[in-house]
Amino acid sequence: MGQMNNINKHVVFEDFFPSMVEKLGADGFLNELCNGFRLLMDNEKGVITLESLKNNSAALGLQNMSDDELRSMLKEGDLDGDGSLNQMEFCVLMFRLSPDLMDQARTCRI
Description:
The protein is mainly alpha-helical and 110 residues long. It is 55% helix and 9% strand. Strand 1 (3-7) and strand 2 form a beta hairpin.
């Protein structure tokens, strides 16, 4: 997954996704996204909640993010409005956070 750095209280997202897709292939990349989801999810509920994100955010270097910042992340990806992220919502959010990956997908032709 990408790496977020907290610099002067601004979150900077460094997009590693295009190089990961190139290295791992589409299937390998999707497998890594699924691994990221499992890392952050609440094992009992099977979704990413605010609490599971807070408890597991250090694994992604996000331990210094405030509750409001974490809530904003959840809200941005929460397509069905239930206050949590299921695996599909997480993957959609990750793709949306990668402008280069989205540009590549738009120019891909079958």
